[in-house]
Amino acid sequence: MKAIAYTRFGDADVMSLQELPDPLIGPDHVLVDVRAAGVNPVDCKVRAGYLQGLLPHHLPLIPGWDVAGVVRSVGVGVYDWKPGDEVLAYARKDHVQFGTCAESVSVPDRMIARKPSTVDFVTAAALPLAGLTALQSLKVVGAGSGDVVLVHAAAGGVGHLQVQIARELGASRVIGTASPRNHEFVRSLGAEPVAYGDALVDAVAELVGGDGLVDAVVDNAGGLAFDQSLQLVRDRARMTSIVDGARARENGVVNTWARPDAGQTQWLVDLVAAGKLRVEVLQTFPLAEAVKAHRLLEGGHVRGKVVLTV
Ligand SMILES: NC(=O)c1ccc[n+]([C@@H]2O[C@H](COP(=O)([O-])OP(=O)(O)OC[C@H]3O[C@@H](n4cnc5c(N)ncnc54)[C@H](OP(=O)(O)O)[C@@H]3O)[C@@H](O)[C@H]2O)c1
Questions:
Q1: Which residue, 13, 36, 256, 267, could crosslink 137 as a Cys pair with Cβ 3.0–4.6 Å?
Q2: Are residue 81 and residue 163 in the same domain, yes or no?
Q3: Is the beta carbon of 161 within 6 A of some atom in ligand 1?
Q4: Can you give the C-alpha Rg of the chain in angstroms?
Q5: Secondary structure (3-state) at 192
Q6: CATH number of the domain that 75 lies in?
Q7: How does pLDDT run across 116-146, given as a tens digit for each residue?
Q8: Is residue 261 one of the residues assigned to a domain?
Q9: What would the pLDDT profile of 224-255 be if each residue is shown by its tens digit?
Q10: Do residues 32 and 110 share a domain?
Q11: Ligand 1 centroid to 288 CA: how many Å?
Q12: Is 158 in the pocket of ligand 1 (CB under 6 A)?
């Protein structure tokens, strides 16, 4: 099969399209013919070698943790899936090597959700990692009925879904940080936009009124946004960071690290099919142009998601 792969860590140029053996599947795995693979900032961090302390890596490495495609075959212990089924998954395994930027990928069946026929492959591939991160981080902070929730980087892959999911969970107001060019986009998702930067604490306080504090915060940006969040949240137990693990621990804040979850993935994609969750895809690239996709993401200003088509 053709796959994007690399044999050393480094910048985007280490990646190339290669001919590699088809994946082997274990008893509880499903072999998926990839139609689309979502690209996430973590793919760039893995490629740069930054995550080697967190989980085992093996070279040559095929990047990619998001997939939408069609089941080709199933392992002997798989009962819920059959060839021809259209599926999607956040397919992060315990060891990083055989990712989704390939013509086919082996995925544990516990990670797989069914793709509704009304949701296209590109949209489905853009959803799992970012959607699960959005949902799981909102659960960590207990976002729900009547809450005022602050979402940093609200125009990004995770943030644009988080804003909508927070409203779906019952939040009465969502305030989303973004640069001014993204304010209309953030507003269209159901949030009140505010510019990030030095003036953020005052701007949020003015928006919310009263004591100037919010009920819950999800930090998708880190750095200054993390510090400002500490000042803006009423109770630190209702703040999480998906970016700044070390700072979170130092400050008694939970760091969210998204886990594959088939049930939650199904809930998310069903919400998309019901027209209640919009997945914004800024750009698609053919598999062979994965280098361009990584470079675009590393620019740090993608609106929504970037997806590779296979
Ligand atoms: N812990 C986990 O499980 C987990 C899961 C997913 C992602 N992450 C991490 O979370 C971060 C966000 O992921 P993502 O997929 O949403 O990234 P992304 O799509 O690349 O985020 C891009 C967005 O960030 C915004 N942005 C840039 N600088 C900002 C700042 N200083 N303050 C606020 N917003 C800013 C940009 O908005 P403008 O263009 O308007 O500036 C852009 O829309 C990444 O570091 C990623 O690795 C962690």
A1: 256
A2: no
A3: no
A4: 19
A5: strand
A6: 3.90.180.10
A7: 999 999 999 999 999 999 999 999 999 999 9
A8: no
A9: 999 999 999 999 999 999 998 999 999 999 99
A10: yes
A11: 25
A12: yes
